[in-house]
Amino acid sequence: MTEQEACSACGELIADRFLLKVSDTSWHARCLRCCVCQTPLDHQPSCFVRHGSVYCRPDYVR
């Protein structure tokens, strides 16, 4: 049995079938959002991290 990981956004254990890994952190799919515009990133082809915060492409390049 594998140990459950805590979501970087909400802090709850991830018991979902899928979890997302971004820059060595784990996320519920519903919790992975751009820190600026709150766009969900679970269906985006990429996301970007700067100083520990997660961004969508448009907000990252600003």
From TrEMBL:
GO function terms (MF aspect): DNA binding; metal ion binding; protein serine/threonine kinase activity
Gene3D superfamilies attached to this UniProt entry: Cysteine Rich Protein (2.10.110.10)
InterPro entries listed in its UniProt record: LIM_Homeobox_TF, Znf_LIM
Pfam families: LIM (PF00412)
Example of a GO cellular component annotation carried by this entry: nucleus
Keyword Ribosomal protein among record annotations: no
Keyword tags: DNA-binding, Homeobox, LIM domain, Metal-binding, Nucleus, Repeat, Transferase, Zinc
LIM zinc-binding domain mapped to chain residues: 5-62
Location of the protein in the cell: Nucleus
EC annotation from Swiss-Prot or TrEMBL: 2.7.11.1
Subcellular location, principal: nucleus
Protein name: Lim homeobox protein, putative
